[in-house]
């Protein structure tokens, strides 16, 4: 299955940026001592859960954080920021990420309300009611734009750990 043209173009741009950095002798984040938390979803982190970005999104967001000097590891869409009552700073530039959907929810019309509603089934292992999904023959690839939490007004800054302070702590040294 070929990638959608827009997704392939964004991947090509990422590869070209990496090639340009290599040719100019610019060290990658793993060569430069750049240390940060893995990129994660802002909304989930504020709910006390961590949902990390994986694969190409992980690489793309780490490189963007280093390039733009973002120290916050959290990222959010415009819509998620609105849900939080926060606001993206004027002029902020977002980063494109990919979302691959391999299943879709099973929906049926409720005879009482005449509206489409999610179908639920009982999970045999847990005995709990869970949403029912059907596997797609081909995944759906979606494109989203995310903003670093440091570009968002109305949220608390992420608490960062200082590596030099940690290494000086006697309880952590050997």
What is this structure's SSE topology?
Elements: H1 5-23, E1 40-41, H2 42-46, H3 55-68, E2 74-76, H4 78-83, E3 87-88, E4 95-105, E5 107-109, E6 116-118, E7 120-122, E8 129-131, E9 133-148, E10 152-153, H5 163-168
Parallel strand pairs: 1-2
Antiparallel strand pairs: 2-9, 3-10, 4-9, 5-6, 7-8
Structural account:
It is a single chain. The chain has 174 residues and is an alpha+beta fold. It is 29% helix and 28% strand. Strands 1-2-9-4 form a 4-stranded mixed beta sheet. Strands 3-10 form a two-stranded antiparallel ribbon. The chain is globular. The C terminus is likely disordered.
Number of strands: 10
Oligomeric nature of the chains:
single chain
How many separate structural domains?
1
Mean pLDDT rating: 86
Fraction of residues in H or I helices:
25-40%
SS class: alpha+beta
How are the strands of the largest sheet arranged? Answer: 1-2-9-4
Order of helix and strand elements from N to C terminus: HEHHEHEEEEEEEEH
Which stretches of 5+ consecutive residues score pLDDT under 50? 170-174
User: Describe the biggest sheet?
Assistant: 4 strands, mixed
Radius of gyration: 21 Å
Count of helical stretches: 5
Shape: globular
Euclidean distance between termini CA atoms: 52 Å
The share of residues in extended strands comes to: 25-35%
